[in-house]
Amino acid sequence: MANEKEQPIIIKKKISGGGHHGGAWKVAYADFVTAMMALFIVLWLLSSSEQVKKAVGGYFSDPSGNGKMMGSTLSGTGENVPISEENMEHLKEKLEEAMKRAPDFQKFKDNIQMTVTGEGLRIELLEKEGGMFFQSGKSAPSPMGTELFSKLSVELAKLPNNIIVEGHTDSKPYASENGYSNWELSADRANSTRRLMTDGGLKVHQVVQVRGFADMRLRKKDDSNHPSNRRVSVIIQYLKVSAQERSQLTEKPGEKGKADEHSKAEEHKTEEKKGH
After folding, report:
1. Which of 11, 229, 247, 260 is the most exposed place for a label (fewest CB within 10 A)?
2. Check whether domain 88-237 has CATH 3.40.50.720, yes or no
């Protein structure tokens, strides 16, 4: 009788994640979206210019932006624009804007001259009577010169172009008992500028030459003792670019599409002639 009253044993099994209620489809969908995004990026790159391709490639090879080819310009647009003859004027305008942001710009604005030459963009820092960017008769930069060279180095470090630094003096004989002359002074000032700019962020390999000319290249030849003959010149050399890159730098918006259409039309005409 006791056995008849015992309740039967019931075993319950719980099945989880069954059917369409599981989450595996979410993983598959995420993989699909990622693959589509990668496809669209590849298609976009294939239709982009060489300039954009190099900028994207430069970022992935050097994400920190410390390499020679980096995805940034003075305007901070994320483009890697090589400074060539076609856009050196654009660089000049950007540097002028950067200099205007310096606290003491009004004090030295007339002592900075920027000129586009056959060698590149020449930035000349002209001294005045009593000294401005350098201590009078010495190779050590003044506080104003230190600040200006540091600001300039930050801007030039964003470029892939090579830099040349020159030192110049006036024709006044340098008073020295140990043979130190205007030659040594001009070279030492150029080298002090190089050292200060590399300490400020300019890449070491960017500076390819340091020149000292003494009074051999006077700015005012009719007044060889004029203070402006004492100067330091920073030259941003042109970067050699291919013919395709040069056309991309100079073409106006919309011209690329017209050029492509013209090219396709010419190809179509050629194919028709072959068919006949």
Report:
1. 11
2. no
